[in-house]
Amino acid sequence: MELPVQSVLTELHSALCQHQRAILVAPPGAGKTTQVPLFLLQQLQQQDPHGSKRILLLEPRRLAVKYTAEFLAQQLGERTGERVGYRMRQDSRVSAKTRLEVITEGVLLRLLQADPSLDNIHTIIFDEFHERSLTADLGLSLCLQTNQLFRDEIPIQLLIMSATLDTDKLADFLAPVPVIVSKGRQYPIDYHYLAKTPLPQQRLTTWQQSVEQALVDQKGSILVFLAGQGDIQRLFQQLQHLISEQLSIYPLYGRLTLAEQHLAIAPAPKGHRKIVLATNIAETSLTIEGINCVIDTGLY
Q1: Final residue of a domain: which of 181, 215, 233?
Q2: Model-level pTM?
Q3: CA-angle at 106, arms to 123 and 26, nearest 5°
Q4: Cα–Cα–Cα angle for 292, 66, 229, nearest 5°?
Q5: Same domain, 96 and 140
Q6: Are 62 and 257 in contact (CB under 8 A)?
Q7: What are the φ and ψ backbone dihedral angles of 253, each rounded to 5 degrees?
Q8: Is the peptide bond before 176 cis (omega within 30 degrees of 0)?
Q9: Beta-ladder partners of 104
Q10: Which secondary structure element, helix H or strand E, spans residue 262, and what is its range?
Q11: Residue 95, Cα to own-chain centre: how many angstroms?
Q12: For residue range 282-293, what is the model confidence (pLDDT) as tens digits?
């Protein structure tokens, strides 16, 4: 199945070659995280098949780093650590064969400290840049400085990708820079609202009732957005009576181990449903297969 972003890949590559920087705006589901890095990797391998230059793909969250690397490697029919690898604090899987490395924003800063010229880096992709962390902003500024001070002859190509971004201000900052816009693919969505907002002391009961009703009214799995770990744990306890051979419930928040987070995002077995209780960690950079219903408490 062709994804919308594939229609702009050639234009994007040309822009990077000509200007060494570009902004890609593509809505969720367009395929920017899964298609753009592999396309640029293919172009790099054609230009320099036996070289050591690499592409860095920055993700804002540790879970997204590992998940993205695994998905991209699978697209190539490989395991992580071959042409596609990942690196984050206390966990990495790279090798001499790795040409596309998925990393956290903090790892980029450590790479810049170790080698300010980033001599073996060809392209850096800033994914989900609209989240605008201090670390990502600093990383982008230092990369621009690296090009000015150390890479004036062969600059690092810089690509900023986002689903929602104030492109005017960023384009002014990076000028001259081409802004490439990809269309998305919208699926029909039905919205249902509570008749009234529950009082604070009624929220937990209301959330429980909403999940129970969604299990009856909807097919597939359910994703529930909550404000934080405390709300997730309280609702998890309230829903324990629903767990069965056909239904599992998983929490998903930043302080869980990567193994625990992976359980939440892994596809449910055939004939099995799951409920994922998540913070906004699941809002971007992740796709949880099988989700047919989303309950948003509106508090995060």
Answers
A1: 181
A2: 0.86
A3: 50
A4: 60
A5: yes
A6: no
A7: -155, 170
A8: yes
A9: 59
A10: helix 258-265
A11: 23
A12: 776 677 888 999
